[in-house]
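Allow me, if you will, to draw on your knowledge of protein folds for a short while. Thank you for your consideration; the sequence and its tokens are set out here:
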Amino acid sequence: MAEDSVRVTADALLEICERILRGVGVPVDQARIIAEVTVAADLRGVGSHGVLRLPAYIHRVRAGLMAADTRIGVIRERGAAMLLDAHGGFGQVAGVYAMNRAIERARQHGVGIVAVRNANHIGMAAYYTMLALPHRMVGIAATNAAPSMAAWGGTRPVLGTNPISVAVPTGQEVDIVLDMATSVVARGKIRSAACKGERIPLGWALDAEGRPTEDPEAALKGTLLPIGGPKGYGLALVVDVLAGVLTGSDYSIYLASLHDMSRRASVGFMMQAVDVAAFSDWEKYTEHMKLLMEAIRSSPLAPGVDRIYLPGEIEGLREREYRQAGIPLPTRVLEELQKLAMDLGVRVDLQITR
């Protein structure tokens, strides 16, 4: 844990988030959902999508750019598919609702796919895909984001980090949870580094002139780099089509950033659930998953590597640690939350461990 951080219990952080959200008019049940999604990111060590984002949500609500009460409407339905409108509300509320509807449809059709338009930032994508795991289903999520990444060969951001998450039930001690931006790193990690006054590795981003940079502030004014060069660019473009164009949401340069206080945002995303039972007997499936996982874990190790982890396994171990020892939170983020709470007239009780 960094020296400028303190550990805060998950329960205390949940309570703080809920109180702040209710302080701007978010209904109690929705405040709980948003707080759980937000704190879940910090618990898994994905601080770039955790409480660091809460002040931006609150500022947008207070500026009239986000709806405090998320009202979800059905635009169209056909078989396993559904399109919803979040009417400018919280992406977390719409995301949980959409994945739950996808799970219901998967029970009936073997697969369910629910798209949402006119939402806002959804936070950590893995939260939604993991909702499918207890139902013995594969969860899939993809969302677009404001432009922060140039097309391959360009210098002007025209695509978002456009993350993809897939959660796969294994029937073993750990499930597989992939959660990745189509850029080398999520933009939130650049913001987090800037917040902490840290440098970033070369290869993460370019500055406004298209030069590689280690300065997070310069990177925020420039462009992120895609994973795998043109392959990451292609993935980001496809996600923008599926989540933005297809749903009727904004996309590319037309999608406002969470930090753009001049206009509303219309984020789009797709949640999908795939019922394992529609394709395979559960016992046979889990036996093959066990063999696959064993083959991966028992493969020869590269020099300097002492263990091979499955996607999401490190985050799962971190969550177990943080639930016991508390979540390490940068003091600057904590101070911003306290200032926000004070400004809203909200009482904050912190349980801090050193």
About this structure: The chain has two domains: 1-69+323-354, 70-183+226-299+306-311. The chain is about 40% helix and 20% strand. The mean pLDDT is 94.
